[in-house]
Amino acid sequence: MSGGWNTIESDAGVFTYLIEKLGVRDVQFEELITLEPDELRQAGQIYGVIFLFKYPTGETRSDTPKDGSFDYEAADNLFFAAQTIQNACGTQALLSVLLNKDGEVDIGKDLREFKEFTGAFPADLRGDALSNSDLIREVHNSFARSSPFIDETQRTATEEDDVYHFIAYTSINNKLYELDGLQPAPISHGDCTVSEFPDRVIPVLQRRISRYPPTEIRFNLLACVQDLRIRAREMGDMETLEAEEHKRTEWQWENALRRHNFVGFVGELLKGVVKDKLAQGGDAYENWVEEAKGKTKKRIEERQKKGFAGDDTE
């Protein structure tokens, strides 16, 4: 293997520019706030959805899924890859949608060649090919948050960690499929045309969420859709077009911040603050330190009252 895969965020801006960097054209991701078919329809032309959830560690694999049914023959007619490496599931999920929409979506030269190269492979070899793709790995890693303290390529999850997982849902050959690289095969959820997708996929997602305790709210749903600027231009909706362009600008700024290491900046800022306090003379520096200690102690006490641990970190 040529290198490790870092963790990326479930974020519409991250996913949109990640696929653009891979050569995909005229596609974007939109975060869905509610589990309503109408909200999904409002996103325009839909290719699939990516669902992020807390993975139940220690759960044993069954010969039958908790919802739907394994379709072992489907892997011969669609792109399905086993997940063979940690931290790659976000990119694997979005590729599970897009590589199955080749023809409907311009996936670009590199991804089309990858799909053709792995077309005759079984799922586990497709997963290995994905894990060892320098292009896909390097683009994926370019959207990871910069961390000067943690080597994400060496980090492994423990039972105490919260582990999150991405899976894809899309309509292929008039069937609703759940594509999860940790499962032995695609999971069929029955007949589903492209136009029926919003009405068919939402109940499936609701049933999955209902298996979690009511207090579990850590879910995220992203829709893979046609670039919303295309429809705005076709309809002459300049207000929507301007809003979408502004959103793209914000996404670019946020992605740039993710890649930047601010440790040096923070260090220089602290040096300047300390230098200023020392220059004031007298007890200014000691008073400043004591004031900071008092604020920290107060925050710890407030967190303890709310049932958090005494550590003042998130």
From TrEMBL:
The keyword Hydrolase applies. Signal peptide: none annotated. The keyword Cell cycle does not apply. It comes from Zopfia rhizophila CBS 207.26. Residues 4-226 form the UCH catalytic domain. SUPFAM superfamilies: Cysteine proteinases. Keywords: Hydrolase, Protease, Thiol protease, Ubl conjugation pathway. Its EC number is 3.4.19.12. GO terms for molecular function: cysteine-type deubiquitinase activity. It is an enzyme of class 3 (hydrolase). The record marks D180 as: Important for enzyme activity. The lineage of its organism: Eukaryota, Fungi, Dikarya, Ascomycota, Pezizomycotina. It catalyses: Thiol-dependent hydrolysis of ester, thioester, amide, peptide and isopeptide bonds formed by the C-terminal Gly of ubiquitin (a 76-residue protein attached to proteins as an intracellular targeting signal). This is Ubiquitin carboxyl-terminal hydrolase. Belongs to the peptidase C12 family. Residues 295-314 are annotated as: Disordered. Gene3D superfamilies: 1.20.58.860, Peptidase C12, ubiquitin carboxyl-terminal hydrolase (3.40.532.10). InterPro entries: Papain-like_cys_pep_sf (IPR038765), Peptidase_C12_UCH (IPR001578), Peptidase_C12_UCH_sf (IPR036959), Ubiquitinyl_hydrolase_UCH37 (IPR017390), UCH_C (IPR041507). The active site is at C89 (nucleophile), H165 (proton donor). CDD domains: Peptidase_C12_UCH37_BAP1.
